[in-house]
Amino acid sequence: MAPSLTVLLIEDDFLIRTCLAEFLLDSGLTVREADNCAEARAIIGAEPKLDALVADMTLPDGDGMTLVQPARERWPDLPVIYISGHGDLRRDETSGDPARDRFISKPYTLASILEALEDMTSAASD
Length: 126
Description:
This protein is α/β, with parallel strands linked by helices. It has four helices and seven strands, in the order E-H-E-H-E-E-E-H-E-E-H. It holds the Pfam family Response_reg.
C-alpha cells in the first residue's frame, strides 16, 4: 500500500484504537485518530485529503455512520469500513457497493482491516 494513503480511524476504545493505529502506521499508512464524533468531524473538516474512513458504529456522542455524509461531501468516492460488535444490521443504509462500504464485525484481526483498506483503495484508484 502506498505510504501516501491517509486513513481516519474513529474508535472510542483506547486499546483497540491504539493497536489498530499502530498496526496501520507500521504498514505504511498515515493515520488520523478520533475517539468520538466531534473529534472526527473536526478532522474531516480540516484534513486536506482522506483516502479511507474506518468508523466504529457506536460512539459515546453518536453513531459512526453519521460521519460518512460529511466525509463523502468532501470526498465522494471515499471508502468506508464500519466496525461493530453488534453485527451489520444497518447494511441497508449504505451504498451496498463493497468498493465503497464494508462491515467488519468485532472481534476482527488487524490484518483484516488492512486487507480491506488495500482492496478498497486500490479499487477506488482503478
